[in-house]
Amino acid sequence: MRDADPFAEPEAYASLRREATALCAAVEPMADEADEAETLHAGMAAALRESGLARATVPAAYGGRSESVDPRAVTTVREVLMGTSAHLDSLFGMQGVGSHALGVAGSPELREQWLPRVAALEALAALALTEPGTGSDLRNVSTTIRDVGDRLVVDGVKAFITNAGAAAFYTVLGREGDEYSLVLVPADADGLRVVSGPSLIAPHILGEVRLGAVEVDASHRIGPPGAGFKLALATLAVFRVSVAGAAVGLAAAALEEATRHAMTREQFGAPLAKLGGVSQLLARSWVDVEAARAITYRAAAAARVDPEGALHLSSIAKVAATEAAGEVVDRCVQVMGRFGLVRGSKIERLYRNARPMRIYEGSTEVILDSLARRLQREVTGRGS
Ligand SMILES: Cc1cc2nc3c(=O)[nH]c(=O)nc-3n(C[C@H](O)[C@H](O)[C@H](O)COP(=O)(O)OP(=O)(O)OC[C@H]3O[C@@H](n4cnc5c(N)ncnc54)[C@H](O)[C@@H]3O)c2cc1C
Question: Is the CB of residue 159 below 6 angstroms from any atom belonging to ligand 1?
């Protein structure tokens, strides 16, 4: 008897994939509309809530699906969701990204208060790191957190925050003295104001979160003072690979669209797919999708066991898959000719949705920079 395929998808993930696929089949008719939305799309949110899939983004003790959040499960779900709707994918992913630090290091009361609602998609989560003047270089943040006895006072402006205006709370990074801390700020805190926008080429729930002397109880600091970057890293370590999963799903969906088109449209007396140049574009894209999928699930399996130990693999997967998705979707538009450019067509939507993935949660260049340093250390035992 032959050995079982060691790369076959274990049944637990295959069954999660089926659940996500069923959700996508149900929401496909509203995907176009949701992906144009800059505020919460109620139908999409209700369908995700109903599916129970958001439970994969929090620990079991608070209504989640596994003891600790499983990066492979999140990756699998995002691969499926992103092939249908970026709005849906973002709603799902942000529940984890916005609440992970809380699940790891929040006070028991704060976890009890929020995480079951995050799992049930009754409260949307958000992570507020970026500022108008600070993107990749997060040590430059100017938001401050001041400890005044049993209260914390938060001042600053956070920009480009996903779920701004829709979230029930924001996990905010700020300077606390000479260190950096995370603090949970409920959306209804006095002094918190959201200004929507800007509008992106791929519409997104996005806004600026202005914090003017916002006061919260000292128990709202997540972890001890100074743990901000450690907790942000812990979040990346679990969720970065899931961006790769989303990119694989988007690329595969684009390839399916283009392949169908190329098999049905005829030019020069034959389907496009029979014309050499076109078939090369499709096959080349298939190679890229499968290569990206392989490294993504390699990284996700490693991240499941040791997220921080596998961060370099998650980073490699994020770069490989998001860059591949950009190239694949571009080729797919080419295969579809003028039809690939029509506003409102699925391929055009995928083309726009692919672009931000190379920028958020660590831009390609910033990740390559840190990978280069690690590579040098591994090869020579030296380096910064
Ligand atoms: C759709 C979307 C959603 C977002 N949601 C959130 C959110 O929920 N919360 C949040 O906090 N932020 C969010 N962001 C912001 C995102 O995290 C930042 O865009 C990202 O960190 C990059 O920062 P920046 O755009 O300011 O680019 P910059 O940091 O200004 O970088 C510009 C360019 O310079 C390159 N670069 C920068 N530093 C280096 C370096 N050291 N070496 C080589 N190249 C470098 C970058 O790769 C990039 O190409 C979101 C962004 C988008 C597009």
Answer: no
Given pLDDT bands bounded at 50, 70 and 90, which one contains residue 2?
A: confident
| CATH code at 11-123 | 1.10.540.10
d(CA 39, CA 370): 35
Cβ atoms 262, 338 nearer than 8 A:
no
Report domain extents, the chain: 11-123, 126-225, 229-380
Q: What is the pLDDT of residues 213-231, one digit of tens each?
A: 999 999 999 999 999 999 9
Ligand 1 pocket residue status of 246, Cβ below 6 Å: no
36/175 Cα distance (integer angstroms): 35
Contacts of 143 (CB under 8 A, 6+ apart): 131, 154, 155, 156, 157, 158, 172, 173, 174, 175, 211
Does the Cβ of 128 fall within 6 Å of ligand 1? yes
pLDDT band at 3 (very low <50, low <70, confident <90, very high): confident
Distance between Cα 137 and ligand 1 center (Å): 9
Q: pLDDT at position 296, please?
A: 98
Q: What is the pLDDT of residues 280-289, one digit of tens each?
A: 999 999 999 9
- CA distances to 155, 169, 280 from 105, in Å: 22, 16, 50
What average pLDDT does this structure show over 313-323?
A: 98
pLDDT tens per residue across span 122-166: 999 999 999 999 999 999 999 999 999 999 999 999 999 999 999
Residue 1 predicted with pLDDT over 80: no
Architecture, CATH, for domain 229-380 = Up-down Bundle (1.20)
- Is 197's C-beta closer than 6 angstroms to any atom of ligand 1? no
Q: Which top CATH class is 126-225? A: mainly beta
Distance CA 234, CA 240 (A): 10
